User: What shape does this take?
Amino acid sequence: MTPMHEPFDTETLAYIELTENAGAPEGASVAEMRAAYEALRARLHGGRPAGMVAEDFRLAGRPARRYAGGDRGRVLFFHGGGYIVGSLESHDDCCAGLAERAGCEVIALDYRLAPENPFPAACDDALAAAEALDGPLVLAGDSAGGTLAAGVAVALRGAGKIAGQVLAYPALGGLTLGLPAYAEKAEARLLTTADMHWYHAQWGAPEGDPRAEPLLAEGLTGVAPCVAFGAGEDPLRDDAEAWAERLRAAGVKAEAHVETGLPHSYLFARHMSGRADAAFERMVEAVRGFATAP
Assistant: This one.
């Protein structure tokens, strides 16, 4: 039985401990961080669904991967990793599972990473990919990928090309705004507020730029509708609801949900944690709700 003071159930706690034990040591180089991240994601890879066809190709000059999950609609997915780590491989089974469960074509983009390619390289790659694809598109992403998805939705507002945005524990500018979770969950497991400051410093985005902090954007009328998910045990918890509130104030249909008892990066816990798998299924349903055949 989970102790009353422990916010995580035993399955989720096992994922957290595995992740913490597999992380790069303090003071590791970016190359070492990437190697540890990829090794952990490979260890947690649950395999692609039977019969899933995945094809690598170039999209707007960048590597990309197409998952043929069905013809319900088209999803453009941006991976998380603080703009520093992450790849097509790290999120492979996540994208494959999303494609299969949602019955959609999912296209994952391998955007340029910092610090070698600082802001706005990732934003430019994300927008170029969306502009190169035929719509309607559902934009989706986790963590930093959620930031990129929201930024593209803002950039393409009013164009009629984006059907919706589905964001998992996105960073949308709540750090600059001082939303409560950045203090309340400052020492959360798997991601701390100090970690967020470090990632932002490596990325080099100027404070207040709406491409990096969509919550600070002006003129949100016409942005595509959104379903955003926060993790209950995460400094980023409040960004999702703040984004939904801003969109609703602009007349955009938007909703937010906080997944209680889950940490940042919970999508990768779904093969170990029933709670995380249920949260992933809610993300799938949100994508299905926006998806229409191109």
Q: What stands out?
A: The two ends are 48 Å apart (CA to CA). The CA atoms of residues 267 and 280 lie 6 Å apart. The beta strands are 54-59, 62-68, 74-78, 105-109, 137-142, 162-168, 226-233, 254-263. Residues 10-47+55-290 form a domain with the Rossmann fold fold (CATH 3.40.50.1820).
